[in-house]
Design goal:
By secondary structure, the protein is α/β, with parallel strands linked by helices. 48% of the residues lie in helices and 15% in strands. It has an eight-stranded parallel β-barrel with strand order 1-2-3-4-5-6-7-8, surrounded by five helices. Strands 9-10 form a two-stranded antiparallel sheet.
């Protein structure tokens, strides 16, 4: 499960290794928004060459250009014909599960787990089917900037709360990961930390980011503390020792939803 998901421009290959070694759980080489039209071919070549290498410290994938334009099709053809083996593929401007299914068929045996970038009103309306199409191997990334522009809203917490809530329900039903939009002010660490705690409390499983300095703070928030792990283990043990019956443990009612929450905490443990 990805806590942090760091974007790096595809036309800046000198940054690839730095991103991979930043501590991020996942690194996404961006061929889309971070790359100017003049550099699309360069970014494509550099990204696919890098992804043709060996094992890396972080899961490393690629964000394709939208299939609404020619660059997206060039990306798909180049990937299909290359030796690149991305850990995942991030698909932008997704509207429905049909888009994901189309990409998967086009790539054939080159189709790594697909992540969908939710940045259109159509995608939010179709989130249940969209999340189901990416499945447990993939996930959803909230593209808040494009989404807010599409609906004529700003990027404030209140303006995007409804979208976040809708995404959480759809992703949870499908059992897929869900990452929040990057915090765009890279100098405002206090703001990053406060907002990331809020999205974690809502149910987001991680957060995307645009600068290595954000990675550690996101990871810290999404990594359970020793105290949280100890409490989760004690909760599970008490429930199992009571033969799976509801009980009071340290004054708290323990039933199946509480047990599930404790198991989620243990699943996030890091060695």
């Amino acid at each position: 499960m990805f806590r942090s998901f760091l974007f790096v421009p595809g036309d800046r290959p000198e940054r690839f290794d730095k991103a991979v070694n930043s501590g991020a759980d996942a690194v996404c080489i961006d061929l889309e928004d971070a790359v100017s039209p003049a550099n699309k071919d360069l970014a494509r070549r550099e990204a696919l060459a890098y992804l043709d290498g060996g094992a890396r410290a972080a899961a490393t994938g690629v964000r394709l250009n939208s299939l609404d334009g020619i660059e997206g099709f060039r990306d798909v053809v180049a990937l299909a014909e290359s030796g690149a083996a991305p850990s995942f593929i991030l698909m932008p401007k997704v509207r429905t599960r049909h888009d994901v299914d189309l990409l998967r068929r086009a790539l054939g045996d080159k189709a790594a787990p697909i992540w969908a970038l939710m940045e259109t009103p159509q995608a939010l309306a179709a989130i249940e089917g969209l999340a189901d199409s990416v499945g447990e191997a993939g996930g959803i990334v909230f593209g808040g900037a494009d989404f807010s522009a599409a609906i004529g809203a700003d990027m404030s917490w209140d303006a995007l709360f409804f979208a976040r809530a809708g995404l959480i329900a759809g992703a949870a039903a499908a059992g897929c990961q869900l990452l929040d939009v990057p915090y765009l002010n890279v100098r405002d660490i206090d703001g990053l930390v406060a907002e990331t705690r809020r999205v974690k409390a809502m149910g987001f499983t991680g957060r995307s980011c645009i600068h290595p300095d954000q990675v550690g703070h996101i990871n810290d928030i999404y990594t359970p503390t020793a105290e949280e792990i100890e409490k989760a283990q004690a909760t599970i043990a008490a429930y199992e020792n009571n033969k799976g019956r509801v009980l009071l443990h340290e004054g708290r009612l323990v039933e199946k939803p509480v047990l599930a929450a404790a198991r989620r905490i243990l699943a996030r443990r890091r060695s």
